[in-house]
Amino acid sequence: MAADIAAWADAGLLYEVDEDGAAWLRLNRPEKRNAMDRPLRNALLGAIHEVSEDPTVRAAVITGNGVAFSSGADLTQVGGAGEVPPERRREGHDGTRTDGLLYGWSRLMNGIWNSEKPFLAAVNGIAAGGGCQLALGCDLILAHEDARFWEVFVRRGLPLEGGGAWILTKLTSLVRAKEMAIFGDPVSAADAERWGLVNRVVPAAEWDETVKAWAKRLASGPTIRIGHIKDQLNSVYDATMRQSFRDEVTFLHMGAGSDQGEAMRAYAERRDPNFTGN
Fold first, then answer.
1. Are 131 and 71 within 8 A, CB to CB?
2. Beta bridge partners of 26
């Protein structure tokens, strides 16, 4: 594992797990505004999988070092088939590019979406292009008062990438999504909160304290049950009401573990529960 962390650091990703069991994934290419080239994106994907697989990790925070969260894909990098294994490639230039996008950014976003662990985006500055999708694809989103969310693709003559069309229309209204995507103007943290894109805007003086407090609260919760709730809420997008009720019953039957019992005992004893993540 130590070798992976060292390799991730070389690629521009700092990874550490704090004493509360929260993993901190810090994008660390400040001179590039944390633009993601293939090595950084693949390191981030590896770290997301590590969060999901490591039983000692109970939550994760994604943030950026420097003045930016992430300015998205590194446009100095030439895209194409180089990131796609030969067996996954299709013939033709257009097909190859499509495979590259699906093989790269899709895996990144699905890794967060399908993880049983909660991911908190601490958006410390500009989140543009794929960086905007990365932030909005997390389970909870804190925005620094100076943060901005920028669907910049139209200014590059591109359609939305990185799952942007799906994410925007799920988090905010269709007309707001179109405003962001068609005009391509940056959205302030205050407007992002008003439009329902983020959970909370945090003043600069309270930033570090608030992010740490949210990370600790997530990491000290009933991890497996939070995973069930996350799965319930995510699946509602594609489920009927009947299926949603069935999921509730399924998860209740699965919830005979120690955290559920501890919660019930704590309620009866009129004290705070001590969750262990089981």
1. yes
2. 14, 63
Q: Per-residue confidence at 101, pLDDT binned at 50, 70, 90?
A: low
pTM over 0.90: no
Contacts of residue 159, Cβ cutoff 8 Å, sequence gap at least 6 = 153
**Tokens linked to 251:** 């998860």
The CA distance from 120 to 142, in Å, is 7
Query: pLDDT value at position 79?
Result: 46
**Count of Cβ atoms closer than 10 Å to residue 249 Cβ:** 9
User: Among 152, 119, 118, which Cα is nearest to 33's?
Assistant: 152
Q: 123 to each of 57, 134, 185, how far by Cα in Å?
A: 21, 10, 18
Tens digit of pLDDT for each residue in 105-136? 888 999 999 999 999 999 999 999 999 999 99
pLDDT (tens digit per residue) in 218-241: 999 999 999 999 998 988 876 655
Contact 144, 204 (CB under 8 A): yes
What is the spatial distance between Cα 70 and Cα 67, in angstroms, rounded to a whole number?
Answer: 9
Helix ranges, the chain (H): 2-11, 38-53, 93-101, 107-114, 130-136, 164-171, 174-183, 189-194, 207-219, 223-236, 241-254, 258-268
Determine which helix (DSSP H) or strand (DSSP E) holds 113, and give its type and residue range: helix 107-114
Cα 253–Cα 114–Cα 38 angle in degrees, nearest 5: 165
Q: Which tokens belong to 83?
A: 């990131």
